[in-house]
Amino acid sequence: MREAQRGEARRRLVYDVVVRHGRGESIRGICRALHVSRGAVRNILRDEQQRRDEGESAAARELPATRTPRGSKLDQHAAQIDTWLDEYPDLTAVRLQEKLAGVGCEAGYSIVRMYLREVQRRRDKAKPKAAVQIVETLPGQQCQFDWSPYEPKGIEPVELWSCKLSWSRAGSLIPSKSKTQPVILAFLQRNFEEWRGVPAQAVTDTMPGVVDRWECGKPILNVRFVDFAAYYNFVLDVSPRWYPQYKGKVERPFRYVEDNLLNGRTFHSLEHFCETLQWWLREKAGLRPHPRTKRPICEMLEEERPHLQPLPARPYDTRDVVIRLVEETGHVRHQTNRYRVPDEQIGELVYLCIGLDRLEIVDRGAHRLAEYERAPDGAGLILGDTNPHRRRYDVTLLAARLAAWGQVAQDYAGRLRTRKRCPGPELNHLLGLQQTWSADDVLLAMQHAMDYEAYDAKAVERILVARFTPRTLPQQVADATRARIRETMRDHPVASRSIGSYSAFRHGDTALAQGSHRTVSQDDHEDQGLLEELASDSSKAHGAVQPDP
Known about the structure:
alpha+beta; five-stranded mixed β-sheet; four-stranded antiparallel β-sheet; 20 helices
């Protein structure tokens, strides 16, 4: 833009100079009128006279004038610098300056650095590019998947999911606003169902939700994705970092989408974009010829389907599971939205099974409490409640929730109710502490607070911060589950087998196997008697070994 403005101003100046000179004005007068130098006026008159005498081309007139490249004081040392770079390809500007000083060239660091950068750029440009070999796979052997961001005209930017079968080149494109792991699993599952089978291998890059990190040059796969891959019986192959050619069959179609789908189209909404995308996949992309066989891709897909692995009897549950505390109003929060649960769950931890379209709430016994159509993230909606306004605290219910933790919590809640005029917020705050601290630590903090007659939720929290270490909700749920198992098995204890009893099984005879069901106590005398009995049974079962005559 600025170059065009400068060119226009220059042409107007030339016009004014030529017109005034034609009227008979002197060069001095033209300079005073146009505020330019006499040399500039003479140059303009000379150049215009040369244009009239010799002519010009339209291209030369429109293109900017090229500058004559200036020489460098290092040009005379170009051969020596090339020799050094051949011997030391990683030569830095500091070392090059030192070497030049050794041959009598006192060039500054900035000049040396710019010269070296230009030489290296020319060398890199002259290097032949490595050829990329396209690897073809057998039918049903491999698929590749990846994300790519797009900005369709008329709507907000979206992420486009692409998953493609390597042999037939058949694939799908799904727009999404999120790239979380549940979305990846759900889209992969949808692709498998569209193909009516599962390839033996899937190739992708270092995608969050698939690869957690790299260690010693190897990818560490996400545990949940590993479970998904085992369920559908496919092997995951992660491409090397910064090498997109490794999965070129899914990378190349992204350019095809930009050139043939988005080019020259304006969309009114995300729904309009999705409808156009499905039509384009069905009527255009699916009918284009295969790059190798030149047959339509839809025909190649039908030929590849019998080679895919069969789908499992039931689809994998791709929903994300999070833990939430039921608030005093009988709601749980997720992505700024609030979902109603029964009042008897107030103060309890519940599980949220979050799918792409629906959200299910279950208690810690896996019993369904409620199910809703998932609200858009960030909408701030309240679902399942005819009265969305804040309700009064149910003090009795909150105290009962705390009493379930033990006698200490029951005593603390009872005394707090007598000391506080409005105990509801205090009791609710105490229940909320289990989101950060284990219940055992909260009980110890309550006991410490009672010793000092501090009946305040903030006091309990200050004790927790000073004396204990926070624990995540999954850790707390695991601890609570282990406690319930111990309570359930109290009437049916399992005796631990002593370590010495296992040495007898190294003999490997049938009598030992038959006698292994006997109850082995931890008493050393009984262990010794058992070992003697097992050894005696072993000798009877095998008998004496007679030498061969």
